[in-house]
Amino acid sequence: MTTREGAVISAYTGILVCNDFSPVHEYIEEIIGRPVFTHEIPSLETEIKEKSKAEFERIINNIGIDEGRDAVFRRCICDYGNNPQIDMAIEEMSELTKALLKWRRAEGAGLTAARNCIVDELADVRIMARQMEILFQCEDEVERMIDFKVQRQADRMDKWEAEHGEN
Length: 167
Hints:
Elements (H helix, E strand, L loop, with lengths): L2 H11 L8 H11 L12 H36 L1 H24 L4 H26 L3 H26 L3
Helix pairs in contact: 1-2, 1-3, 3-4, 3-5, 4-5
């Protein structure tokens, strides 16, 4: 379970499932949209539950799927070894690059076939990316980096719109 998943589950249920309350508090502030003092949390219980429900349900619905997948991914790493799985990740990313280039050149009915190839290669890349998270034990760090990069991009777009006006 990622730190974020633990924070969501804790916020929704009111039961702390994390080792640290800080991520839960940060998540509550995120969904409420403002700084929240800890003494306010009980009075916000309904709103917290309401705003975290969709993400909570997604997590709960995927728990069995993710655990089963991760077990297979761990087995791949153990059975095939670290370096072969790293090589496979590189190979799958290369195949996705090739599929994207084919799609750019495709026309007519070829677009459907090229798109299907992209879907297949995206699945392979996601599988290998997850194996790399497991191998390098960096799932939480990757999640934090994704959050940081998404926010940075949103800030860039907001700044651009402020400078150039919305189109």
